[in-house]
Amino acid sequence: MDRSNRQPDEVLAGEAGEEPSPRSARVLWWGSAGLVLGVLGTSVLVVGADHAGRLPAAVALVLVQVCALRWVARAPAAVLAATAAAGLAVWALLPAVTLTGALLAAQVALCVLSAVRPRRVSARALVAMCLPAPLSFGAGGPAGLAVYLLMVVLAWTAGQWRRAQRARTRSETRRAVVEERARIAREVHDVVAHTLSVMVVQAGAADDVFTRQPEQARQALRAIESGARSALGELRLLLRAFGPDESTEGTGEPRQPGPSLARLDELADTVRATGMAVHVDRDGATDGLPAAVDLAAYRIVQEALTNTLRHAADADEVSVRVLLDGKCVEVTVVDNGRTVQGRSDTTGARRGLVGMRERVRLVGGSLRAGPLPGGGFEVAARLPVEGVS
Questions:
Q1: Residue 318 and residue 267: Cα distance in Å, rounded?
Q2: Which has the least CB within 10 A, 73, 252, 267, 321?
């Protein structure tokens, strides 16, 4: 299947042993070729000086192993078989070369195979590489056997470590993708849900007075148009933030400010246009707030106002209080709606509360939301400023 047509999740969920990139494959070849030539090639030249008749064949077999390593990233099993056979032939020609050294290229191939192929495949290769161990015992005794087995196991273990490292990196990438998707979903929900809720209320009001009070109906329609334009502007800003980093300089398109507590009055005005009385009490300066805290506070107020419009029975007044004391931001939104059994458990409200709790959790704050004893509904959040970037 063409990788370019695979979905992000399919790519991330691929085998933990994806083949190295072309650049990594080249680096791997040059490194392993240098190692084999430096260690095995030198040993063959030194030992073969006393066996001039066998030296050319041994050198040729070393070069065969070096050339075979060119494809070790693409076909590690085939390269392992070829280098093992060539290494055993080198050892047969020049027994003074240790079996561990003669099979050095095969050990490199085993390491790569362990890193890029399933464990069951690499385990069988490990067993196959251990089969010549009796030969090392015959040539070098217990020490030779121990060294050979140690090097083979170390090569396989190094591949497993690399495989685990890449799997961990892929898992972290997958988690980051999921979190980013959730953040985008929350942002889109906050923008669309609030604006549509206001527009629904205004459209209903316009329909009620369309014949008797046409001017009031026109005001409601203008408010709907203004709210839709504002939502479109926020969505464009959101998509630009999650898209390629393209500057708007020189395009003639004004850069619109993002959601912030500094725009709290604009948010309140959109709700006032529905006929709801909104009181905003702000104590403290919003300058210098961490962007994450500023956005979270704004979205909490927005979601609380949206829930008031959609779920607060008979509510006609809502109070918003924002207190900034340098260490934290306290946001409180209280409406005077009639307490309805299970209001906080309705589908829309529950989704909004989940989003608010998630935003608060991300900045290390706390949230309290529920009906008040004397009637109405309160949302209170405390967002720490210190330690949040």
A1: 13
A2: 252
With a cut of 50, which residues of the chain have pLDDT below it?
Answer: 1-16, 244-255
Q: How far apart (Å, rounded) are the C-alpha atoms in residues 204 and 310?
A: 13
How big is the chain, counted in residues?
Answer: 389
Strands (E), 75-148: none
Q: Within 10 A of 371 (CB to CB), how many other CB atoms are there?
A: 17
Q: What angle do CA 162, 167, 172 make, to 5 degrees?
A: 130
Residue among 136, 144, 79 nearest 105 (CA): 79
pLDDT at 290: 82
Q: Supply the DSSP string of 237-276, one letter for each residue.
A: HHHHHHS-----TTTTPPPPPPS-GGGHHHHHHHHHTTT-
389 token code pair: 């970037």
Q: Among positive and negative, which fits the CA dihedral 29, 30, 35, 41?
A: positive
